[in-house]
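wait is this the right file?? whatever heres the structure
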């Protein structure tokens, strides 16, 4: 019962750590500065296992004195890449520059149609990009390069001499932890000296999550072994105490099936009550932890079937282990001792 309760509460801790360690979106982005990569490395990063697509983005000119000036960001992408990397994107055209707009999200920068923004070119020159009037209705995932207000530039319309010092290569993959680790390892193998920014990920929390899961698995195995051993000892001790009573009942004509049924009932009934209470108390404790932690998940309905299945499995094992404790053989010595 303590094991079931502890598993439920620990599950809540794992959910909370998972939420704070990475975004809840189904896609994960990784940013690498373009000036840290060679052309061969860029091509190799596209073939890293787990990477679905890659796009290049640039930010407008930023004065060296730190003056806060209006900014604009552009991302080099096709409509197909935009569609697979966002929650929703409608109205995209591959033959023109367009502006991404999410009407439900606040804008970090708000480039207006007709405004002109300078972008650094190679050799220290500046090119100017005019914000188009055409817009794409987009719903990006949180913390995405396809942010609202960004300009979408098809690869064919991109000026060839943009300065890589203001450019970023963004890789996109699934967000499950195994894929994230595989992609990070692949990026490290291709570009070991290039800094990588996993968008929204806290690497230390991912490591903590792995350690906690490992400790949970070890604790569950140890608890299972100790619990089974304690159960076997207690049932065997109880069966030895009741041998004389079972023999007397057998002499009085009680059927073996009846005796076994009573034995199973005496073991399963209190265990079922205790496990039921442990499941309910553990689930409430887990939900309370998630609610007070402020995570996106408050009531973990997905974890409840696992706890119920574990409790039912324990009851089944207990019932099957109780049956052999009642034997048909009648030993007169037990009655004499009684």
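ok assuming it is, sequence goes like this
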């Amino acid at each position: 019962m303590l094991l079931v309760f502890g598993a439920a509460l620990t599950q809540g801790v794992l959910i909370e750590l998972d939420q704070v360690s990475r975004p809840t979106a189904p896609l994960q982005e990784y940013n690498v500065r373009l000036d840290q990569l060679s052309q061969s490395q860029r091509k190799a990063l596209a073939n890293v296992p787990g990477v679905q697509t890659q796009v290049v983005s640039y930010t407008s000119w930023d004065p060296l004195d730190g003056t806060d000036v209006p900014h604009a960001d552009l991302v080099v992408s096709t409509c197909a890449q935009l569609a697979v990397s966002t929650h929703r994107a409608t109205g995209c055209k591959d033959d023109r520059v367009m502006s991404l707009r999410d009407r439900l999200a606040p804008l970090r920068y708000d480039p207006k149609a007709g405004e002109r923004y300078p972008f650094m070119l190679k050799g220290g020159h500046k090119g100017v990009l005019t914000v188009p009037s055409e817009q794409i209705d987009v719903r990006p995932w949180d913390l995405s390069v396809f942010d609202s207000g960004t300009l979408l530039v098809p690869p064919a319309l991109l000026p060839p001499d943009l300065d890589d010092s203001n450019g970023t290569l963004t890789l996109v993959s699934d967000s499950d932890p195994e894929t994230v680790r595989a992609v990070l390892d692949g990026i490290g193998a291709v570009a070991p000296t290039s800094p990588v920014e996993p968008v929204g990920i806290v690497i230390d929390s991912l490591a903590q999550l792995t350690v906690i899961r490992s400790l949970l698995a070890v604790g569950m195995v140890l608890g299972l072994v100790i619990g089974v051993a304690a159960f076997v000892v207690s049932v065997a001790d109880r069966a030895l105490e009741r041998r004389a009573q079972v023999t007397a009942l057998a002499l009085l004509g009680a059927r073996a099936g009846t005796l076994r049924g009573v034995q199973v009932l005496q073991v399963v009934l209190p265990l079922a009550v205790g496990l039921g209470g442990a499941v309910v108390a553990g689930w409430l404790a887990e939900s309370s932890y998630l609610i007070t932690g402020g995570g996106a998940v408050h009531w973990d309905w997905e974890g409840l079937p696992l706890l119920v299945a574990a409790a039912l499995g324990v009851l089944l094992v207990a019932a099957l282990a109780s049956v052999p404790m009642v034997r048909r053989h009648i030993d007169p010595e037990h009655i004499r001792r009684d």
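The chain has two domains: 2-11+206-337, 27-200. so i think its the right one actually
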